[in-house]
From TrEMBL:
This is Methyl-accepting chemotaxis sensory transducer. It comes from Gloeomargarita lithophora Alchichica-D10. One of its GO terms (biological process) is signal transduction. The keyword Iron-sulfur does not apply. Keywords: Coiled coil, Transducer. InterPro entries: CBS_dom_sf, MCPsignal_dom. The lineage of its organism: Bacteria, Bacillati, Cyanobacteriota, Cyanophyceae, Gloeomargaritales.
Length: 408
């Protein structure tokens, strides 16, 4: 018998199992079969076949049992093997070579108890009949069951591993679901916040639109009033310049008149000196003449008094002229400073007109509810710059007012 093979797959057929194919004609002497059975200890039995037709089968066990009986050797060794087949008359289990091992094992075990251990005859279309022992069939089935069990255990382990992975994935899915719910809640909160911010933005847009309208109205009013103020300021500055020129001219004329007063005062002083000198001489003559010129002495005394009074009046006139000259000089300096300030004011007003024109341009660029914060800040900076340039007009105006007050 061929070496027992290991069955590892579940779909092996009975033709794949170890077998014995000792096949003889029914007329073969029993002696030949006896010698073959004695020589081949693994021989399962003998198949009797006449012209490709299966006649029967005698298992090794039944053949040895029959031959071990008294006088069997003398009876059957010289007779054809067919004689033993007629005595035993054992039904043969024929199976196809393509039959499954588990099916053949089940059919073999379903035979009567006295036939359970008989070999199975395997019939194949391209091969002679074969004998397969029951223990080979059962061993193959057990190996298949073991292989099946190993596969089941492997599949069970794989299934358990898959279940573990599935459980882990389910845990991940639950965790992802929880995180997704948290994210959805956060997104909902963000959406609510965005909705609130959008509502606030809508209100801010309306406020910006209202402020824009007010800004335009204020800008237009400022432009109109600014132009009027600039015209009035120009007129006032021109009037200040004219008045300043008149003050300067009057100061120059008064300076000339003071020069004439100085000249007259000097003449009076000279006359007073001469009269004093004459009065002194007259007093000397009167003192020399004694009582004859008593009346003349009185006249001389009166002339001396007159001279003193004239000198005093001349001194007072000089002091008044000096103070008047100082005031005229201060007035002239103030007038010159006022003129310089007025010219500076004119320059400032011209720059303010440019700033006002820029402010009108900024006002003309009206804001809209869709204006970006950068556009709003840019327009605010331009408006602040224009306002700053407009404020510079106040400085020279204040200076003119303070100088006018100090001059008064």
């Amino acid at each position: 018998m061929a070496e027992m093979m290991q069955i590892e797959a579940m779909d092996y057929r009975v033709s794949d199992l170890p077998y014995s194919d000792f096949c003889v004609d029914p007329s073969t002497p029993g002696k030949e079969v006896w010698h073959r059975v004695q020589e081949d200890t693994e021989l399962s039995g003998v198949i009797l076949q006449r012209e490709d037709q299966l006649v029967g089968m005698i298992s090794r066990r039944r053949f040895l049992e029959r031959m071990s009986r008294p006088y069997s050797l003398e009876i059957y060794l010289k007779r054809p093997i067919e004689a033993i087949l007629e005595v035993e008359n054992v039904p043969v289990l024929e199976v196809s070579g393509d039959a499954r091992i588990d099916e053949v094992a089940a059919a073999a075990l379903n035979r009567p108890i006295e036939l359970v251990y008989e070999p199975v005859v395997v019939i194949s279309s391209d091969q002679p009949p074969r004998l397969v022992d029951l223990h080979v069939l059962l061993l193959a089935q057990s190996q298949m069951l073991a292989a099946t069990n190993a596969i089941v255990q492997q599949k069970t382990a794989e299934t358990q591993s898959s279940l573990d992975r599935l459980t882990e994935e389910q845990n991940k899915v639950r965790e992802y679901t929880r995180l997704l719910e948290i994210k959805q809640m956060e997104n909902k909160q963000r959406n609510d916040l965005l909705q609130v911010q959008q509502n606030e933005l809508s209100l801010k847009s309306k406020e910006i639109e209202e402020l824009n309208e007010r800004f335009v109205r204020i800008g237009q009013l400022l432009s109109l009033e600014g132009k009027k103020a600039f015209q009035a300021t120009f007129a006032g500055v021109n009037s200040i310049c004219g008045t300043t020129d008149q003050i300067i001219n009057i100061g120059e004329a008064l300076e000339k008149e003071l020069e004439a007063v100085d000249s007259a005062t000097k003449i009076i002083e000279d006359v007073s000196k001469q009269v004093r000198h004459l009065a002194v001489q007259a007093a000397v003559v009167a003192n020399q003449s004694g009582g004859q010129l008593a009346g003349f002495s009185y006249i001389t005394s009166e002339i001396g008094k007159l001279v003193s009074q004239t000198f005093e009046a001349s001194s007072q006139v000089n002091r008044v002229a000096t103070r008047f000259r100082t005031k005229i000089q201060e007035n002239g300096e103030a007038a010159h400073s006022t003129a310089e300030t007025a010219r500076s004011l004119i320059q400032k007003i011209q720059r303010a007109e440019v700033a006002l024109a820029e402010l009108e341009q900024v006002v003309g660029t009206a804001l809209t509810p869709t204006s970006s914060p950068e556009q709003i800040q840019t327009l605010m900076r331009e408006g602040d710059a224009s306002t700053t340039r407009l404020q510079t007009v106040e400085d020279p105006t204040t200076q003119v007012q303070s100088e006018a007050a100090s001059g008064g």
